Each structure stands twice: as C-alpha cells, then as structure tokens.
Recover the amino acids of this structure.
C-alpha cells in the first residue's frame, strides 16, 4: 500500500508570500532527499492557494519528513502566514497520483484543519473552492 498525503494552504496576504516561498523551497529540498518518498506534485492555484500531494512507502517515511528541520520551521510560521490550512492522509493500492478533483473532494469530506491565528470563513466551514488553475504545477521526484 502507498501512503498518500495532501495539503491545501492559502497564504493570507501577499506580504507573507516571500517567507512562505523560501520556507517551501527549503522543505522541498528536504522532501526529495527523504527515504521512502516516491513522488508528488505542487500546484499553485488562484488566490494564493497552494496544494501538495506526496506519496510515500510508509506513513513513518512521511513523518520523518514532517518532523525534519525545514518542514518543522515552516509549520511554526504557518498559523500566522495562512488563513486556510488543511491536510489529509490515506492509503491506496498503486502509486498513481490522484487528480486534483479527487484530492479536493477528499479534503472537503475527510480533511483535517490546522489551527490558525486568523482563520477565514472558508477554513471554519471547509468550503474550499475546486482547483481553478493548474498551469503552475511542479512535479516532485526523489533524488536518485
């Protein structure tokens, strides 16, 4: 079984974007080196919304990344940078990345909310719009 992790983050102001993007790049550098990482994708959507999907050999591999220095440092700033933040995990048979519609539906139904300092109304109700713009996608592959 493949362990799948998806996140949806909305940066609450363009003023937080530079710090968010720097932290994201540091986390991606750590991600692609983490044992057990299979593949993933980042998507930048309209309205400062950022989606990620990652696939892992096991949940313990994902937790190693999650608890790593770069990701942990970013998560400390997340409650102030974002007004919407949610994640979801599930197991699936194969290593085919799910489409964004499936990820969105799972996020609405089963997603877990991250505690934020300034949550939006959408955060509270989990009323997230579907992915509107998928032109800015970046595949994530493990370093060989």
């Amino acid at each position: 079984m493949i362990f799948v992790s998806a996140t949806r983050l909305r940066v609450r102001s363009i003023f937080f974007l530079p710090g968010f993007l720097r932290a994201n790049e540091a986390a991606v550098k750590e991600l692609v080196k983490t044992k057990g990482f299979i593949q993933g994708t980042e998507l930048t959507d309209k309205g400062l919304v950022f989606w990620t999907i990652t696939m892992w050999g096991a949940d313990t591999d994902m937790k190693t990344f999650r608890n790593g220095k770069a990701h942990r440092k970013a998560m400390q700033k997340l409650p102030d940078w974002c007004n919407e933040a949610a994640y979801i995990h599930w197991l699936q048979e194969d290593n085919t990345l799910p489409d964004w519609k499936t990820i969105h539906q799972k996020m609405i139904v089963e997603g877990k909310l991250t505690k934020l300092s300034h949550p939006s109304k959408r955060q509270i109700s989990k009323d997230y719009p579907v992915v509107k713009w998928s032109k800015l996608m970046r595949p994530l592959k493990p370093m060989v």
Summary: The helical segments are 17-31, 59-66, 69-81, 100-110, 121-125.
